[in-house]
Write a structure and sequence with these properties.
Order of helices and strands: HHHHHHHHHHHEHEH
Largest sheet: 2 strands, antiparallel
Protein name: DUF4393 domain-containing protein
Organism: Photobacterium damselae subsp. damselae CIP 102761
Number of helices: 13
Structural class: mainly alpha
Length: 237
């Protein structure tokens, strides 16, 4: 019998036909209930090999990450989950590699909310709202950005919601881009001399705007979309 690897176990767990019936909130679940909820999953058995391995701080943290991810994707149809894994498999060299990559994304999360966000991105990929490459890229962004900074995406279209530091963090992670703000009344037309005077007197102001990735992450993970008449020009500094 071929020994099951972590990657193949993760792939098998995602593609499982067995309903998970996971609870919405695990904050109040005691350790024994957590183990009971996950013990039938192939990835759980391979990672923890019984209750004793789970009964450690690191073991419990890892188990809760797994739980939170699978809670988000549990209502997907089998064929939709399989489609995402198959697409990742084709791009990454096989089912084991796809499963290991997904497990690594979930395990690298440094906050309990992040596996849920990765799960939301997986669901969006299953519904063809984002591509598999966008799923993998945005999941990496989720892991790279401090959770409190990520949650500011809920307010990203609100006036003056983002600090200069947060704009820089978003820009460094591909969620925002910088351009040079046009001088006031630029659309009315300038002679070259007037344009030079405007730049000299007013300086070159920077303007931040959300990238497509930034808009997708805000929409998928936090249900935040740009309201009509609420433009990104507010990010000028």
């Amino acid at each position: 019998m071929t020994k099951m690897t972590l990657g193949s176990a993760m792939s098998k767990t995602v593609k499982s036909e067995k309903p998970l019936d996971l609870l919405a909130d695990i904050s109040d679940i005691i350790l024994s209930e957590l183990a009971s909820s996950l013990e039938s999953l192939p990835i759980f058995g391979l990672l923890f090999k019984g209750y004793n391995a789970l009964n450690t701080i690191q073991g419990e943290i890892s188990a809760r990450k797994i739980y939170n991810f699978f809670y988000e994707i549990q209502n997907l149809r089998l064929e939709d989950k399989a489609k995402v894994m198959d697409e990742i498999s084709r791009s990454k060299g096989g089912g084991d590699e796809a499963g290991l990559l997904l497990l690594d994304l979930v395990d690298k999360s440094d906050d309990n909310l992040k596996p849920k966000l990765i799960g939301k991105l997986f669901v969006a990929c299953a519904f063809c709202e984002i591509t598999t490459q966008q799923f993998l890229r945005l999941s990496s962004v989720v892991n790279n950005v401090f959770i409190d900074d990520l949650q500011k995406l809920k307010e990203v279209y609100e006036h003056n919601a983002l600090s200069d530091q947060l704009k820089s963090i978003y820009t460094a992670n591909g969620l925002m881009e910088i351009s040079i703000k046009k001088p006031q009344k630029f659309s009315q037309g300038y002679t070259m001399s007037e344009l030079g005077d405007a730049i000299f007197n007013q300086g070159l102001a920077l303007e931040y705007s959300l990238t497509d990735d930034g808009k997708l992450l805000a929409k998928v993970c936090f249900e935040t979309t740009e309201k009509i008449g609420n433009t990104l020009e507010k990010f000028g500094v």
